[in-house]
Every structure is written in C-alpha cells, then in structure tokens.
Amino acid sequence: MKQWSRQFVTVAGNSFTVLMGDPLTFIIHIFIICVTLLIACLPGFTLGGQLKLVRDQAVALTFIAGSLLAAVGAARIICDDLRKGMLPTIMSRPVSFSALITGKWAGVVLTLAVILTTSTTAYLWSSRIIAREHFIEPLGLMVFMGAVGITLLAVAVRHYRKGGNYMWQANLLLLPVLTVSFIVLNLWGYNGAEQSYGILVDWRGALVYVYLFMAFSVFTAVVTLLAVLMDVSMLLAFSAVLFFIGLFSGYIIDQAAPGHFLNAVCNVILPNWQQYWVTEIISSPKVLEIPFILSRCLGAFLQSVLFLIAATVFFERKEIAGSI
Questions:
Q1: Distance (Å, rounded) from C-alpha 145 to C-alpha 213?
Q2: Which CA distances in Å does 187 have to 139, 194, 200?
C-alpha cells in the first residue's frame, strides 16, 4: 500500500505539472476569469435579477470550459503517452496499473480544482461588483483587473529574468493572488465605505462550484476510460457526446427506469450532470443538508471509482496484449 501511494503521488504530481504548464490550461484559466468579469459588467444585466443571471452564466461557462480541459488533459497525458510509447516504458518498471490510471485521473482533477477555485473567486468578486443594482463598484472592478494584470506582468518579468515555464507559474500564482486580494478587499464595503465583512458578496454562490467539482470528478473518470480505449480525435468527439448526454440523462433515466432500484442503478452507471447543477435551488436550505450533500458526494465517488476500475482493467488488457 505504501508503494502504491508513492506511485500514485508521483504520477499525479507529474500529470498536474504537465497540465498546469500547458498553454491551453492557461488560456482557459484566463478566459474564465476575464469572461466572468465581462458577464458581470454587461449593461443588460442592470435591468433586474442580474445576480442570478451572472451566476448561471458564470457557472455554465466554467462547466463547459472545465469539461473541455478535462477531455484535452486526458488526451495530453494518456493518449499522447500511448502514441509516443511512453507508457510502455513506464510499465516496464514495477508500477501498479491502478496507481498509474488513478494518478493520471487525480492530476487532471487537481488541475481542475485550481481552475475551479479561481473561477469561484472570480464569481464571488463579480457578485460584489454588481451588488448595487444599476451600479458597478469601481473599487472592486479596479482591484480585480489590477490583481490579474499585475500577476501576469510579475510572472512575465520573472520569466524574462530567470526563465522557466510561464504558463505553469502564472496558473499557480493567480490562485493565491486573487484569493488574498479578494479577502483583503472585503475588509471594506461598497467603494471603500465601512461595512460588515463581505456583506456585498454572494457567498452562497460558492456552493454551486463545490457541487460542480463533483461533476468534474465523474466526467474526468469517464474521459480517462475513453482515453485508454481511443485516439485523440475519437476521445474529443465522444467527450462532447458525453457532455451533452449527461445534460439529459436524468430525464431519460426517469422515463426508462421508473422503479426505485433500477433508477438508482442507472444513476450510478450513467453520468447525470443535473444532479450537481444546484443554481436553481441555491437559496433552498436543502443544499446544505447532510443527506443531500452525502448523496451527491457518494454518487460522484461511486461513479468515479466505477469508471476508474474499468479504465484500469482495459489498460491492463492492452498492456498484456502488447498493443501499447
């Protein structure tokens, strides 16, 4: 078990490092941050109900971009390694099949966790900027733009002087800088006025991103299985199909499997993103109730384990057959 843990940590760390240094990860990271701010500042949202509109669109943006990153990430660290013959070299050493597959999955999930945390901060920050109807807070907006701009500039200067991977450094530094800047900003109220801490922020909206992380863990487990079985082009195509099927599978399951037991079995086997989409019921107290949270966590855990076991079995068969 100790050896398995070391192998898992090594594979997960290497996968995380590769993905955090990938240009696409950096582009998606910056894209989510900037577009979330843009959505909040669009003038059409000042006509009423802008907070819900901003929340829904920001979460949808994060879910789509994160799913794309999960699919491309799996292609990058599994399909590419298979194609280049790197995995056979790794498997020539005493490496556990399960540690390798699970570690690759964990590396993608950890990358998504960083992006998701920054996305959550961006949304919470945007909720403060539009806290006053018909107005955009200048202080919050300027600090937001300044924090992002200064971070990217500081990393660029360091990269110019000392070298290194710019995307890796920027992706990692954006998380603590935005988080700390946001925490400090909320010591002041609207436009710098004295108020209770964080009174302008839609803190409850962070729960939406917590549930979204569960969906990402399941989606990544499924694309990990697909990456073992397919090449890059087929993986991306089937990932897109998986994304859209998961949006409607809840309705399909209810119609095709009305029985309680059969319905539960189908919900374990088939991904259903609607279970983790709580934007419509975020104001309901049940999103904080232990049974509700546990049911979502258990479902995400069981589905992730199920698909990772399948990915490990298929990968082991490919290795034994000599097809990798």
A1: 26
A2: 12, 8, 11
**Amino acid at residue number 289:** E
8 A C-beta contact, residue 29 and residue 171: yes
Domain boundaries, the chain: 2-321
How far is the CA of 168 from the CAs of 25, 72, 236, in angstroms? 9, 17, 24
The amino acid occupying position 214 is M
Q: How do residues 238-274 score in pLDDT, each as one tens digit?
A: 999 999 988 887 777 766 666 666 666 666 778 889 8
CA distances from 12 to 110, 172, 175, 276 (A): 8, 16, 19, 25
Counting other chains too, the contacts that 246-253 makes at CB distance below 8 Å and 24 or more residues apart are 246/215, 246/219, 246/271, 246/272, 246/273, 246/274, 247/273, 247/274, 249/273, 249/274, 250/274, 250/275
pLDDT tens digit sequence for 164-213? 889 999 999 999 999 999 999 999 988 888 788 989 999 999 999 999 99
pTM, rounded to two decimals:
0.90
Euclidean distance between CA atoms 233 and 79, whole angstroms: 10
- Tokens linked to 259: 């029985």
How many Cβ atoms are within 10 Å of 58's Cβ, its own excluded? 27
- Centre a 10 Å sphere on the Cβ of residue 115 and count the other Cβ atoms it contains: 24
- For the chain, how big is the Rg over CA atoms in Å? 21
Nearest to 215 by CA among 113, 98, 284, 77: 113
